Amino acid sequence: MSTAATPEVLWAQRSSKTDEAKNFIYLTITVPDVQKSNLKLDIKSQSLAFSGHSDSLKRDYHLELTFWGEIVESETKINHTAKNIALVLRKKELKEEFWPRLLKDAAKVHFLKTDFDKWVDEDEQDEAPEDDLAGSMGGMEGMPGMGDMSSMMGGAGGDFGGIDFSKLGGAASQEDDDDDDDDEEMPALEGDDTEEVKKGSSEKAAAKIEEVA
Q1: How many domains does the structure of the chain reveal?
Q2: End-to-end distance of the chain based on CA atoms, in angstroms?
Q3: What pLDDT sits at residue 84?
């Protein structure tokens, strides 16, 4: 039996002492070609456990993390793609300072790396564009393909088998289509139709004048 590989993990963070939505961890687990039916994810207040299998690569993955601080499991958001699993983990303690590190253990691990595409320095957070809060994931609230972990996991103990990603995928585009429909203007009346409207209005006005007289 082959030994499970430890996947590469990228991370970055934001912090805030007043805004919960700006107090979180970006976490990306690099596991290409792992279908949702072949993976399990168990997230607790201070830990994360992941296991998965890639049929195409014939490779098993396993990962266990113990966080430096606590997170709010129910606020976890996730995006599963053919290349990775990206998560946003809400920090429990509102604090202006960054976590000094991701893991409780200070020892360096070879698979954990800084996600420089999402990282900003602690003193530059306020200067970062608002959209930067969710980076390429598209926003904390409207994240394409994302969902609330508490509703997706549905008491299944972190088993991704209970997640219907097809329902999560097209939500944003559907809302955009609705917005486009609302923005469409009514076409201007032309030709005979316009004349009929004007004529009808004039007749109504004349009738009102006669009633007054």
Answers
A1: 1
A2: 101
A3: 96
